[in-house]
Specification:
By secondary structure, the protein is an all-beta fold. Helices cover 0% and strands 33% of the residues. The protein is built from no helices and five strands. It has a five-stranded antiparallel sheet, with no helix packed on it. Strand 3 and strand 4 form a beta hairpin.
Length: 78
């Protein structure tokens, strides 16, 4: 479970996740980490489609709603 105040609970950069639609996504980075206004500027996760490399973002707290860590794929670097 993700806790905003504990970055050790956040998805690891480079880790690969499966979306409920079957697509694979790799975590790229996070934005608004130091914001004091989560209501207006929530911390977001930036991720890319492993197949076509298109970038996406969503609020970090929404991540686990439709993503599951893909333990069969090691983190992708580079």
């Amino acid at each position: 479970m993700i806790a905003l105040e504990d970055q050790s609970t956040w998805p690891a950069i480079g880790s690969v996740w499966s979306h409920t639609n079957g697509n694979l996504y790799q975590v790229v980075t996070f934005t608004n980490i130091e914001t004091g206004r989560q209501d207006k500027y929530p911390t977001t996760i930036i991720y890319r489609n492993v197949k076509n490399t298109k970038l996406y973002s969503r609020p970090l707290m929404d991540w686990e709603r439709s993503m599951t860590l893909n333990v069969d794929i090691l983190p992708i670097t580079g």
